[in-house]
Fold these 4 entries.
Entry 1:
Amino acid sequence: MTIDLTVTQVLAGVGVLLALVMVWRAGSRKARAAADTARAGARLLSLTGRVLVTAGVIVGVQWLVITHGRDSTLLWVVLGLPALFSAYTLTRALTVTAVDGPRRRGDRR
């Protein structure tokens, strides 16, 4: 069994393959851009969640010591130490340390 193809048919086949490769590459670029955007949004939500959970733990411990504790030194420690931790956490959360922008081909990581 032999296959006889004309030059036009071979060029048409190569053209179709080239078009498929171009469509596939364009789709992968869009998918990568969407994944980068989703990752940046997830980082912000993750950090916000950790700040809120930490604040809830701090408030819970303070409430327990204030309502059930009678020692004034323990009261000052429970109020002061979490204030330092929360100040550190909020400072880190609100400080921009890096800008994650889209990378171009050939940029260094």
Entry 2:
Amino acid sequence: MTTRLIDESLFENGESENRKFDTEGFEGDPPRLAGARCSGCGTVVFPRQDSCPRCPNGAMSGHVLPVSGHVWSWTLQAFPPKPPYRTPAEGYRPYHVGYVDLGEVLVEARLAVPRAEIRIGLPVRLTTVPAYRDEDGTEVVTFAFRPERDGER
């Protein structure tokens, strides 16, 4: 099965050609999220952008984000989002979304965490999850965070 990232610009080394995916995301090291840091005030943003949201003086440069963080806030996405969201072939199933505190920045993301485990402060780690299938059968994956296992930090 062919698999690709939903948007390679969200990742450092995001080229998905010849990368292998499994139910836990990427085999081996996953791609890391690619943000940007302001040279003037140090503000970190995700996704990357060309200008600083806090000051007019700095240039934005690429900044790789940590793979581990903590759930800062979460909710259940109980209904299908508006387009450009694509409903999976097997139909819509509710999922968790929230903000993950990566230390320098809060990232909005899917949370691949069972309801019984999800809580504010939960240690989580970057992974990928299926988003939809293209017309040609390619599985398109997006970033998410899953519970961090013992010893992963």
Entry 3:
Amino acid sequence: MQLFKLATLCLGVFGTTALAEDRVAEDQTPTGKFLTAGEVRPILEATKTSWIGVREFDGQDLVYFTHLLAWRCGLYEVQYVINGGAAEVFAIPECPADIENAMTIPEDTQIFITQPLGSVKTVEVTLLYDDLGTDTVSYERAAVMTP
């Protein structure tokens, strides 16, 4: 327990919050609508190579999170790290229980972040599922470049 407290304190000092801090695991009863970690985790595990994409456009690197946005229900949070830097949170819209189609990305949702052209060499993505499980994948630029 002391080690956990120390790790949490260190994360706070360096500006990164622990993913599961102040979170409670959600009910995992299957809904048939892909609203829980139990329903979306198998899909996200099978599609890890598609979680993000990098594209050069208009003099910038664009890092797309579209795939994760489509499967966001069942997630509490998406964090990313560019080139080993500080962890950042990529905002994902809420998924109300009465959502008609969980895979629809709401209008006006930010689907990418911008970085200077050619600067993105690596991206690490960590998901916090709503059952408090996590999954992390690291990507090299060449593996996720899109035309």
Entry 4:
Amino acid sequence: MADTESEVGALDRGRDETKEERADRKWGELIQEVRVAQTGVQILFGFLLTVVFTPRYAQMDATEHTIYIITVVLGATTTGALISPVALHRIVSGRQVKPEAVRWASRLTFIGLVLLLATMTSALLLVLRVATHDAYVPWLVGGIFAWYLACWFVLPLWTRYRYTTD
């Protein structure tokens, strides 16, 4: 993190805000982003938890059971990572560590997005295997995985590289 005024100005690209104001702004932006991801992963995780109680679960083969267990564990870890910024904020609130809390919450959110990528891919693999059992399923899932990678990571990283200096 920058310590001098000239470094702070360079990092903020002209914003006239204190370290605390910047942390408040970044926190608000982060929480809005997390809300979108949290809602989707919580709905997905809720549906995943119900699968084991359906008659179709008993008809799934051993590979599908394994994929299901992996998907549920991934869904649980994703949910934990995407909810963790709220717990972090609640525990450190009022302790004058918001810039540090924003950094950690951002890292946890990124981890949550990586886990969400794995959860979505695994869930898609399970659903398509159960629905079709066709040989093209791995290719279809691989294509969608590549699409997620491109949308969630490649394009943002390219934009960061292309249009920023830090």
